[in-house]
Amino acid sequence: MRSFDVLVAEAESAPTEGWDFSWFEGRATEERPSWRYAHAMGERLGHATASLDIQTGGGEVLASAPALPPLAVATEGWAPNVAKATALLHPRGAVVVASPEDAPLPFAAEAFDLVTSRHPVKADFVEIARVLRPGGTYFAQHVGPASVFEVVEYFLGPQPESVRNGRHPDGERAEAEAAGLEIVDLRAERLRMEFYDIGAVVHFLRKVVWMVPDFSVERYRPRLLELHQQIEAQGPFVAHSTRHLINARKP
């Protein structure tokens, strides 16, 4: 088995741009939701005339669609991802717009008949409702409450209930309805994750930076070493992600 230092060095040198998780193959696993979001999104894109993908990351999910509508737009706030998404999506005829995650959407009202998003940091339902045409759809997969908190709390300790219950689907239903959207479907699942080596944990925390916001190998080296020893002695570190599917319609 490779040493702690070798595994950590590999993870620290791995690129973190985009939402390509192929680096984790053989090193970590995560169950996928039963609703097959990318496939279902692709079907909807095939029937749309104007679509917007919010916080597209590196554009990988949008680019997986078999066909894009005549007008396809994506937003992204992190500069390295903007460049990656542009390179991936421009050949497909999609436009990538650099837009901060917490800024209003830079589009006219009622510009799109389909708005999508996979794992937005936070969904601004007021803005989503504004840019949707009447009869348009918001179709998205969101991260749910206390997602992967086994990892979070290993490093940060027990989190208050107010933090654990953030992103709850019931709360997002209320926000969407307050913005004038009708919930057509809302489903949630809790999914098993396994980390087979400490490098996978390090890469995960470098890539999903909001999990442990002050994470660095230097800062958390003693805890990382303890976890490395635990994985070697007991097997994979098990956590659980939470996801919910939102299908909402603007009347």
UniProtKB/TrEMBL annotation:
Residues in Methyltransferase type domain copies: 52-139
EC numbers, comma separated: 2.1.1.-
Class of enzymatic activity (EC top level): transferase
The keyword Repeat is annotated on this UniProt entry: no
Statement: the UniProt record of this protein carries the keyword Transferase: yes
Keywords tagged on the record: Methyltransferase, Transferase
Lineage top rank: taxon: Bacteria
Protein's UniProt name: Class I SAM-dependent methyltransferase
Molecular function, one GO term: methyltransferase activity
GO biological process, one term: methylation
